[in-house]
Amino acid sequence: MKNFKIKAPLFILIILCFLGCKSTTQWKGQEPIKKVSTQTVPIQRQYKGVFDLGDGIFMSNDYSGARMNGVARTNDSLLSVLITPENLPINPSPWYGFKIWSETEKDQYVKLTYNEDAFHRYFPKLSKNGSTWEALDSLRYTSVKKIFNERELAESITMKLSLSKDTLWISAQELITSSEVDGWTNKKLMTNSFVTKSTIGESNQGRPINLLKIGESNDQKMIMVISRQHPPEVTGFLAMQAFIETISGETDLAKRFRAVYNTYVVPLVNPDGADNGHWRHNYGGVDLNRDWESFNQPETRAIRDFMREKVTETGGKFYFGVDFHSTWEDIFYTISPELKGNMPGLVPKVISGLEDEFPGYKPNIRPSPGTGTKINSTAFFFFEFGAESFTYEVGDNTPLEFVRKKGEVTALKLMEQLLK
Ligand SMILES: [Zn+2]
């Protein structure tokens, strides 16, 4: 893997065309971030259990990562499920997850409905074991459309599910809770002598905020990687996994990188949100990616304190910081290129490296005006530490093979640039 060069198969080229060839109509991204209160507010907890729906059919939300706020048999052939958020107001990323089984084999219609002003967003994923997932057959899916903020979206959807005694799992995206994240770090990363794990704080509900250290350097040069402030943003997490596995890999580049730079990773910033099946917030009812100035929440404070103490103790510098998310389409939210941090030009070079590696791919880059306000994580990394930074957003429906490839290539280009 020394001379890494992708031989892009045809399907990747098609995906790239889908993602990049419409450069004249590239999505402008979300509205600029506004400062909001990040004081703790009450959240609504789900009533968890097994629901007997008659006719030998049962449903359950009694597991980590589930979200099903109510279910009713609305007629002989239809079960209606209600999905609501942990609290309001909230950005619309309605996570859902439940299990269903039947005493006899049958096809069953199940409708997903949401609270008013919300809409269906994630195409259903199905699993027979809770760990391998595939999308529902689109022929078994219908929706009722409505216009929400100029996008035509579904206010409800109906799935035709094949039920049997074996449990069928239904989920907005593949289920990755705190135990799956631990499984990944233990099996894929902790087997390397150059990876160590520590706990830098506790979430609202007392779950550990885990930090991985990857590298064998003296901490004079460091990078910071975080993911899953927003629980449903699984495609961003999958890109982060590929990125981190590449930095932890066997290539000469990765070995040279780890001798000079230590990479610090918080793979799951919001474990309570992931395990409680939240749409977006932590257990304090707060969007953590608006709390990087006020630090009212323990999850953001843990990362702030770790970084500050590290710099004070070692005299070292964070040269780069990245926060992985998911949204409608692939996009990079960067710091204004006029602002100079510890390695000016790093982020544009990494992104243009991606462009070189995937012919025809036109990255969608949206620099923030850079007013110095540290509302979100990457502004905090930049304005507090001078770390060149960006928010790495992966589309909800970006094909997973491309998500991984892009995560790998981003790590390779970054390591090359940081070692120059
Ligand atoms: Zn996000």
Could you characterize the architecture of this molecule?
By secondary structure, this protein is of the alpha+beta class. The chain contains nine helices and 19 strands. The chain folds into two domains: 265 residues, 3-Layer(aba) Sandwich (Aminopeptidase), CATH 3.40.630.10; 122 residues, Immunoglobulin-like. Helix 7 links the parallel strand 17 and strand 18. The longest helix is centred in the C-terminal third of the chain and has 20 residues. The chain is globular, with a radius of gyration of 22 Å. The N terminus is likely disordered. Bound molecules: zinc ion (ZN). The site of zinc ion has 3 residues, from loops. The site of zinc ion (ZN) has 3 residues, from loops.
Q: In a few lines, what is going on in this structure?
A:
This protein is α+β, with helices and mostly antiparallel strands and 420 residues long. 26% of the residues lie in helices and 28% in strands. Mean pLDDT is 93; it is low at 1-8 and 16-24.
